[in-house]
Design goal:
This protein is an alpha+beta fold. The protein has one domain: Alpha-Beta Plaits, CATH 3.30.70. It is built from 3 helices and 6 strands; from the N terminus they run βββααββαβ. The strands form 2 sheets. Strands 2-3-5-4 form a 4-stranded antiparallel beta sheet. It has a two-stranded antiparallel sheet with strand order 1-6. The longest helix has 7 residues, at 36-42. Pfam families: AtuA_ferredoxin. It comes from Caldimonas caldifontis.
């Protein structure tokens, strides 16, 4: 097994969100094409559904865009009814990308030079 280091997803990718009614979409875009295989392997529908379990999505669907080294997730019923129906402070879903980008990812040590941000601290 390869040596890995666990880092938050934001070290590998950035994200964008959108919403329509009670549906949110979250795009995850690799900072570097070299990191794309790690994203495809670990940022799965199941991983995202687990990350958002507290929001109780009814479905999570992943769409891969390999030529862009990006993926888009569509999460149904995560916005408490949407902008017009919810008392939730973030009914637009804009903060959902930030929650996803904090997801821990195991990165092979040989890929560490391709990460964005500061090097992991020694613990």
């Amino acid at each position: 097994m390869k040596d890995t280091v666990q880092v938050p997803l934001y070290r590998l990718a950035h994200g964008r969100t959108g919403d329509k009614g009670d549906r949110a979409n979250i795009s995850v875009i690799a900072w570097n094409p070299t990191l794309w295989p790690v994203l495809v392997e670990q940022i799965t529908e199941a991983a995202v559904a687990e990350r958002f379990a507290h929001r109780r999505p009814t479905t999570v669907k992943r769409y891969l865009l390999p030529e862009l080294q990006a993926m888009n997730f569509v999460l149904d019923h995560v916005l408490d009814g949407g902008v017009n129906d919810a008392l939730n402070l973030d009914t637009h879903g804009k903060a959902l990308a930030f929650w996803l980008l904090d997801l821990p990812v195991n990165v092979p040590v040989e890929l560490l030079p391709h990460l964005a941000g500061p090097a992991p601290s020694a613990s």
